[in-house]
Amino acid sequence: MIEARELTKRYGDKTVVDNLSFTVRPGEVTGFLGPNGAGKSTTMRMIVGLDAPTRGAVTVNGRSYARHAAPLHEIGTLLEARSVHPGRSAFRHLMALAHTHGIPRRRVDEVIELAGLTSVAGKRVGAFSLGMGQRLGIASALLGDPAIVMLDEPVNGLDPEGVRWVRNLLRSLADEGRAVMLSSHLMSETALIADHLVIIGRGRLLADTTVDDFTREAGGGGVKVVTAETARLRSLLAAPDVTISSSSAEELLVTGRDAREIGTVAVQHGVPLYELTPQAVSLETAFMELTHDVVEYQSAPADTERKAA
What we know:
Strand order of the largest sheet: 5-6-7-3-8-9
Radius of gyration: 24 Å
Mean pLDDT: 92
Low-confidence stretches: none
Strand content: 25-35%
Structural class: alpha/beta
Number of helices: 11
Helix content: 25-40%
């Protein structure tokens, strides 16, 4: 488990991480999200002792990273896949890491096979593609069979098969009871993998919740209603703040009333309903809405760019 309490990091007069508290629990995949410049990388570096907090503290399985005698058995990390000597082979790189913790060669062979690197294990890392480098970084993170896995953009550069492999791998690690912390800009993948979300902006906590609760509370998706009496129900639900659209003869999309209200109105007036389903917004949409005011660099709308051209 990772526990951050009032974690703060300043560089001069610039506060990069600001009083940040959160927990990454065993048995869950926690998506660690935020716009560029939000402080994600700095937070992850503080977790493993690469940066020292200005204030606050963070523990890995109950103690600071530096106090663990064998940290690779506690937490495996992928923060920068290219931080490997380019002249070493993948096998030699992993063996060098293994020697620091007395990890046997058979474990090196296991993670090489797990990461799909068996055919290139003897090649120099400097000749690896971005995707192969990512696989090696994940193999390194898993080398100590750690209780916690923390990965920063693990699917960057991977092909669809590799993305699916990472997705299934992280799910299986969490199902084994490990704590998984995943930082990614790919909202669609995060929505498929994550159980929990920790979202930050300008170093501050914006949300600490489940994926389902976050997208549901974002609202805006409306409620899908299926009934044979759409015209009658439309008139019963009509109000200045209610929007009702239709994509078929028996289907309505109602915005401005929740499912409970719609169901109550239907029962009171004897309108049979065949479906009443809240339509949650996507994780990407909910994330964009939440972080709109804390994005460091705002892109111009597409129509504005066309006019400028």
